């Protein structure tokens, strides 16, 4: 078995499958594109789902990749075990309807055992297979695997709901008896017992069935196009090849761990207590890559995951004695290790470090708050003579403040307390269940459409024509190809002026006319067919016939609105870069007829001044009347031109570069105006956050922008009339004067309320009653607002007139209730809830003061009579 670096292991895998005719697909962003079923890209196949379900046909049916991935469903195990990671690399080879079991098993065996490649000893490899899958069993025998190295496992069947599914066969490496101290042997593998001896290094999924949850697995139908999906974990493979005790003693992690040693002054012991080193090394990889791909720490979704990872790493840093910000110092080490295949970490190093350091500094303040909470909880337990820390409190420290359980346990033990593990586990499970329910909307692939997959009729899109004559080459109705159709159908033409929805630009609509010029169908949508042809959804008014020549005409007014908004999106993207920074990259867009929506990564709300400058800069480029030029070239040349790729787009060998002077250069397959002056006007109508680290701008152009400005002008005129300002330019000054007058009047009202309260208090506070050993005052008072009631409560508290105070006032047509308590036995919030129904009200508050509002002033007398009964 060869000794290799992680870089060599990765490259050898890709080179091997390239030699077998595979195209190497680059690793994509960890943030999924157009896939709401995934929080993160979590496997090598996750980015290829469109190929597996047949919605897109790849140029080459043989694909290989090295894909970065994140899985965070068991963060707590990172550092405890030898192989758990939050970020990892998955090496894979994939066949989309091309080769199948024979080649997949043969090539897997060749790559692993051939001296030309990895050179593993055959006797060290064991394979598991689905018991009913005798074909895989026989194929392993054919390539030279001994029968006693083939283990049937009932769970070796891959399916996630309806769609492609099938048996899988896994490959394990036997690390020997040194990792099996009780000499259990192959039983560890056969009975799926957790162990460190037999390490799974590769899984081959034989995707051959269309899973149907309504029938038994034995009745699943065969896929029209069978697929191969494999996955080899790089970290595990490198650990085996480098003879490491765990994944962490490899060249993927040790440089990070050595840096942590320098920062902490502690020494990493592969066989000792090293959990904190592992947690930090793992989590900083995830943070560096995820932030580099546009995800930012926050309070929900991906942002929450990153914040949790960072806080967990920081707390483990503290366990190692590191009290200053330090994680950001490790970003460069991560980038250096991964640079050969993932240069983006070093390219974005400054931004990643900035975000990590800022988050660390924020968390430092949170740690202080968490420590205070811990001290408060311990203080209360001591006062109550209790010796166990409740699971709910442990979880709050963990979830809200980032305290690892082991740290809380250590602090608790130092204070002489035990902790409620069962309660913590229950709270943790409840949170995980909520997270799964919130994230997983589906997950299965779509079922393959054999008809659309087989549709290979050539079709081209014309960027220049708005109307053209074209032959109808294919009609699909009810998932069947037909020669003629009425009603609703999907059709393909040899050439079309209709733009298929792509890159955020909506599809063209329009009509289909016959030779006589009569409209025979309306085009309501256009999408890309699996082989890339524009697939028109049509509502047929008469009848359509395959092979006939028809005239296709797009809705020009609709197209004009869309292209104005699309071109404005390019200008907006450039403006965001100029004003907010290079990190403000596109995270999705929609170019509609009447508006544009642009999502981008940014760590804070865009300020009013920034929005004004963005709007001004975009309009300036519109008024400069710049020609919008489009050229077709290859990707390398486009990059030399400085072209910026749009989020989520996959570009072929020939790309379109859209240039707007020296202001914007982007790769884009959409349609645009010929000159920026055609956009007319640009107006931002809304800016908001739509998720952690992601902002959204809604804007309008042309006529809609003019109407938006007119609407604002109308509002200004209404305000001008209300404040009686003779000139629009004087309106702001008028409003400011009114605000000053209002503030002065409010102070006068507050002063009068205080005097009224003081005058009333002398009489009210003398009427003290007693019920159930509690003294109380209950009275109806005169008050102009709830503030007056609070003033009376403040005076009552200073005078210490009774244990409980109940005040009710009729203000307008409503009743207001205030309850204050200085008794540990009476909670104001509870008493308010008991009394509020008398005035048809609801309310609540703290133990010492609570308030309620009601719609039934007639009930005040009854309320006051029942105060004593509720004490």
Automatic annotation (TrEMBL):
The protein's Enzyme Commission number: 6.1.1.7
Reactions that this protein is recorded to catalyse: tRNA(Ala) + L-alanine + ATP = L-alanyl-tRNA(Ala) + AMP + diphosphate
One term of GO molecular function: transferase activity
Top-level class of the enzyme under EC nomenclature: ligase
Residue ranges the record marks as coiled coil: 728-762
Domain Alanyl-transfer RNA synthetases family profile: 4-711
Keyword Zinc set for record: yes
Cofactor annotation comment: Binds 1 zinc ion per subunit.
Binding site for Zn(2+): 566, 570, 668, 672
Cofactor(s), by name: Zn(2+)
A biological-process GO annotation: alanyl-tRNA aminoacylation
Broad class of where this protein is predominantly found: cytoplasm
Keyword RNA-binding set for record: yes
Protein family per UniProt: Belongs to the class-II aminoacyl-tRNA synthetase family.
Name of the protein described by the UniProt record: Alanine--tRNA ligase
Organism of provenance: Pseudolactococcus reticulitermitis
């Amino acid at each position: 078995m060869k000794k290799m670096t992680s870089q060599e292991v990765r490259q050898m895998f890709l080179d091997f499958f390239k030699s077998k005719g595979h195209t190497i697909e680059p690793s994509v962003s960890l943030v999924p594109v157009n896939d709401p079923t995934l929080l993160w890209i979590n496997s090598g196949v996750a980015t290829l789902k469109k190929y597996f379900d047949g919605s897109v046909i790849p140029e080459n049916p043989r694909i290989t990749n090295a894909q970065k991935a994140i899985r965070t469903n068991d963060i707590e195990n990172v550092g405890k075990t030898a192989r758990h990671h939050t970020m990892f690399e998955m090496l894979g080879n994939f066949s989309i309807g091309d080769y199948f079991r024979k080649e997949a098993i043969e090539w897997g065996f060749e790559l692993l055992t051939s001296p030309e490649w990895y050179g593993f000893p055959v006797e060290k490899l064991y394979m598991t297979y689905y018991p009913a899958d005798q074909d895989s069993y026989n194929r392993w025998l054919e390539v030279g695997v001994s029968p006693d190295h083939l283990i049937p496992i009932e769970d070796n069947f891959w399916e996630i709901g309806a769609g492609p599914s099938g048996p899988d066969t896994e490959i394990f490496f036997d690390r020997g008896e040194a990792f099996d101290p009780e000499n259990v042997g192959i039983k560890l593998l056969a009975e799926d017992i957790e162990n460190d001896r037999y390490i799974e290094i590769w899984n081959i999924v034989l995707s051959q069935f269309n899973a149907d949850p309504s029938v038994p697995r034995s009745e699943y139908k065969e896929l029209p196009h069978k697929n191969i999906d494999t996955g080899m974990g790089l970290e595990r493979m490198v650990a085996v090849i480098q003879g490491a005790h765990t994944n962490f003693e490899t060249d993927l992690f040790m440089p990070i761990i050595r840096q942590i040693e320098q920062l902490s002054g502690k020494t990493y012991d592969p066989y000792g207590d090293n959990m904190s080193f592992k947690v930090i090394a793992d989590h900083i990889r995830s943070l560096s890559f995820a932030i580099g791909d546009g995800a930012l720490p926050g309070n929900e979704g991906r942002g929450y995951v990153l914040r949790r990872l960072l806080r967990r790493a920081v707390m483990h840093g503290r366990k190692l004695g590191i009290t200053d910000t330090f994680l950001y110092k490790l970003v460069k080490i991560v980038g250096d290790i991964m640079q050969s295949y993932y240069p983006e970490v070093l390219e974005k190093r400054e931004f990643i470090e900035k975000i990590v350091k800022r988050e660390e500094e924020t968390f430092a303040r949170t740690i202080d708050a968490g420590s205070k909470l811990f001290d408060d909880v311990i203080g209360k337990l001591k006062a109550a003579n209790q010796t166990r820390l409740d699971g709910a409190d442990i979880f709050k420290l963990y979830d809200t403040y980032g305290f690892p359980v082991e740290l809380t346990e250590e602090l608790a033990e130092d204070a002489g307390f035990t902790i409620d593990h069962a309660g913590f586990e229950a709270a943790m499970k409840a949170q995980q269940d909520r997270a799964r329910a919130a994230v997983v909307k589906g997950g299965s692939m779509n079922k393959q459409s054999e008809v659309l997959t087989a549709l290979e009729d050539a079709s081209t899109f014309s960027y220049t024509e708005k109307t053209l004559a074209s032959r109808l080459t294919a009609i699909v109705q009810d998932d069947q190809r037909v020669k003629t159709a009425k009603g609703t159908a999907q059709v393909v033409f040899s050439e079309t002026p209709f733009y298929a929805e792509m890159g955020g630009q909506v599809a063209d609509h329009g009509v289909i006319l016959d030779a006589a010029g009569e409209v025979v169908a309306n085009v309501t949508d256009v999408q890309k067919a699996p082989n890339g042809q524009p697939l028109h959804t049509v509502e047929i008014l008469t009848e359509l016939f395959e092979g006939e020549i028809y005239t296709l005409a797009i809705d020009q007014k609709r197209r004009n609105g869309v292209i104005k908004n699309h071109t404005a999106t390019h200008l907006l993207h450039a403006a965001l870069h100029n004003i907010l920074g290079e990190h403000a990259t596109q995270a999705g867009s929609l170019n509609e007829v009447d508006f544009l929506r642009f999502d981008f990564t940014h760590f804070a709300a865009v300020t009013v001044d920034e929005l004004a400058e963005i709007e001004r800069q975009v309009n300036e480029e519109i008024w400069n009347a710049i020609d919008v030029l489009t050229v077709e070239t290859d990707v390398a040349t486009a990059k030399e031109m400085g072209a910026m790729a749009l989020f989520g787009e996959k570009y072929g060998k020939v790309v379109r570069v859209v240039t707007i002077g020296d202001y914007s250069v982007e790769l884009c397959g959409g349609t645009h105006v010929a000159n920026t002056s055609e956009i007319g006007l640009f107006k931002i109508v809304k800016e908001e956050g739509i998720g952690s680290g992601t902002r959204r701008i809604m804007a309008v152009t042309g006529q809609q922008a003019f109407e938006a400005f007119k609407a604002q002008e109308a509002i200004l005129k209404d305000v001008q009339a209300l404040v009686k300002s003779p000139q629009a330019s004087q309106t702001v000054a008028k409003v400011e004067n009114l605000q000053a007058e209002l503030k002065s009047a409010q102070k006068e009202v507050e002063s009068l309320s205080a005097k009224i309260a003081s005058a009333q208090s002398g009489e009210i506070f003398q009427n003290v009653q007693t019920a159930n050993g509690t003294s109380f005052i209950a009275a109806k008072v005169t008050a102009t607002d709830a503030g007056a009631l609070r003033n009376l409560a403040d005076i009552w508290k200073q005078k210490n007139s009774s244990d409980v105070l109940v005040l009710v006032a009729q203000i307008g047509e409503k009743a207001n209730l205030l309850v204050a308590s200085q008794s540990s036995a009476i909670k104001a919030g509870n008493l308010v809830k008991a009394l509020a129904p008398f005035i048809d009200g609801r309310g609540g508050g703290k133990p010492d003061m609570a308030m309620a509002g009601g719609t039934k002033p007639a009930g005040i007398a009854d309320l006051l009579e029942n105060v004593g009964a509720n004490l």
